[in-house]
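Q: What structure does this chain adopt?
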Amino acid sequence: MTSVIAYTVLGIYSAALFYITVYCLMQFNLLYHYKRQRQGTGQGRQALQPKWPGASVKRQAKQLVASASFTDDGLLDEEADGEDAYPFVTVQLPIYNEMYVVERLIDSIAAFDYPKERYEIHILDDSTDETVDITRRKVEEYRAKGYQIEQIRRADRKGFKAGALRYGMQKAKGEFLAIFDADFLPRRDFLKVTIPYFQDKKVGVVQTRWEHINQDYSLITKLQALQLNVHFTVEQVGRMSGNYMLQFNGTAGVWRRETIEDAGGWEADTLTEDLDLSIRAQLNGWTIHYREEVGSPAELPAEMNSFKSQQFRWMKGGAETAKKMLPTVWKSDLSFSKKFHTTVHLLASTIFVFVFITGVFSVPLLFLLGDLIELGFSKNFFAYFLVGLLSIIAVYYVANVQAPVHKESFGKALFKFLFLFPLFLALSMGLSLHNTVAVLQGYRGKKSPFVRTPKFNIKSLRDNFNKRKYLSHKLSWTTVLEGLMALYFAAAVVGGIYIQNTTFIVFHLMLALGYGAIFYYTLRHLSLKG
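A:
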């Protein structure tokens, strides 16, 4: 009986570890394509960029916009001149209760170095607090200066962000729709360095890289930046170079209006309407063009509960989109390689389920290893899975140290990486329970409202979110379980030392640290008075 239990636990643990390893190897495959593209040998869609020998991409884009505009069929009109050379763009700003950041958002959009006669600003305002009046005053200010700006209100918040974008399209005049969430501060030349890539009629979306204005605010923001940098370098560029499906990230990008309409429009049946529409559009033959060198600064969640809320929405929405779109992907005429990569992409949030399983089952496995060894099992078996860890280290190293978009010196970037990466792994492990709940709810079809991530105008160490509105003060059952999980793995460390088996001691230390940190910061930030 003991041997049956031992082999069952080993089987579950190994299966979960195998899944994680495969995921890590697929990330390494994207790293291969990223490096291949960076070395100038890629054959993917990166070739879409305008080409003028001796000119930088930004200057090329500006030259292109300055000399041509788009005709009705999406081609550039080389005969146009002056202001008519600029395609008309609608900038959509979906907001909900953003009293701390809405003014700076509108100011940054109004500062675009794009003729104000050739773009309109639509604030899709579903707010229920002071944000409504703040936005109204800002709209009146810029309308008096000659801007085409409008505050668009709905009778209800049906469909949340997707519903707001769908409603806003009815009032939009632009053939191109730029979208920004409330926490973004796009640069003045954003439209001039993105719109030109629509000269290719197959391009339906141009997505830019997220930058982080408060990256160094706290350990929480530093670790978030570490992870997001992977997505906005290795993953997005790697997928584009490998000719795989990319995703629009919900903000800091531009859509061709025709693409949205052709793909069926914004739908609110998942919490990641951006990923959902991205897949539908690409299945219809449109491409997403990603520009790593074009940064769009934004504010990272600075307190734990806001961060967890964002993670919950992303993880649950990812599972909902996978459930919705994977059958369609596999019925499509895509190549097997594209189907497989798209499947891994859509199942990305599921990795936390398997991280959670490996953690939980590693503890009984620790105490059953003696029995397994007597039955002929060798601990060297686990060494095969180190390839996954080495792969993910390489991915994060390249994204956070080698990527050309980083402005820090090599030495400083390397030191930060060596310090932060182990902490990032621990934090990710600590989030696995919280994110597993989100993923399972997504696959079960349990519906929940779109809970937006609060922003507090945190830009530097001098800023703080204490005594701010929008802070959560509700203790959830998952937080209690996170505290218990920290004790569970701390006990495993003590137990391993007691039985003189240190096989999992580093793993259990990181799990105890990760769950403990999540539990501590959640309680600490819950106690802040809004």
